[in-house]
Amino acid sequence: MFNQETINKLKSIPTPFYYYDLEVLKQTLHLAKTESEKYNFIVHYALKANVSNEILNIIKSYNIGADCVSGNEVKKAVECNFNSEDIVFAGVGKSDEEINYALDHNIFCFNCESIQELEVINELAITKNKIASIALRINPNVNANTHKYITTGLEENKFGINLWELDAVTNLLKTTTNLKLIGLHFHIGSQITDLNTYKSLCIKVNEIQNWFEHHNIKLENINVGGGLGVDYHQPDTNRYANFASYFKLFNNFLEVRPHQKVHFELGRALVAQCGTLISKVLYIKKGVSTNFVILDAGMTELLRPALYQAYHKIENLSQSPHSSLLSPFYKYDVVGPICESADCFGKAVNLPETFRGDIIALRTTGAYGEVMSSAYNLRDRVKAIYSY
Ligand code: LLP
Q: Which of 180, 240, 242, 272 has the fewest beta carbons closer than 10 A?
């Protein structure tokens, strides 16, 4: 992915830092928009994946809405000039302050996750003499077949209103004066690579829609969430998520009523491949059964491997990728400098012979990379640079 000119440029910048290729971002957004527009689907960007201003401004320019999970994300979306009617707000624990902020900015919709939350939003809306537009986030009990920490649509998960609560919810909505039900919301998990999972979701959503129609409740909007996975193993061959098949599947299997709008909330699939964490080798250390490559980036810059045992492709940008023709690759455990044994980016990683000072790329880190970084061990906050 990196040409020599880019590599030379990256080598001159103090590490560690995130490098974002904005051309890759634009191509991804273009594809997502083109494929979704074939069916008049509405795409929102899940801010939680990456909140850099540069990235948000580009996403906004593609007429993509904002999916937020905190008051500060709503604020960020407002500051980046997303239209309030394009902002949705989900989350199991919205505080009163966060709800009030969103009410003040007349956002498109609160995706509500519990009965008590509905009562609180109603009370706060009464105080402000406003009508809050709400969608019910329903837990459809569909298995996303992904890592358990990023599975959200099973009954055992904390997210959404359970199917057995629907009677109680619809009864409550008959009494709440300042709530307007505008639709249903679903999000079953993240890094979903088997599209059949979405077929199961569609079938479940169709059943749930029938239940609402049977109760004479009209739904203007169906939001099926996000979760579309990306290829962490082959970021160059499969740079773009399979947007065509993904949207086509929903068009084929979701029973959309003539008046209805269908919404998506994509995070990872839009921004993962445009980001790379660039780091430098501090030391090569011989272990008993392995050699360690010790980087100047660690779990403080990229938490995913430590938290989810996630794979990120690791490349040595200082050594020729063809050096295997001349000398064999070696296996290294690639680790960070943090005082935690979980601070490991990969075990037995195949790399050309690697030396102190080499520049290492951790690929596909544009989503849930920089946003999940921390200052643990009193580390400096990771920097970012952008290609223009
Ligand atoms: N909508 C809702 C309500 C969500 O909770 C999420 C992600 C999304 C949309 C966007 O999902 P995406 O298209 O990005 O899969 N930190 C984890 C991922 C957590 C995802 C949380 N929710 C990771 O690094 O894999």
A: 180
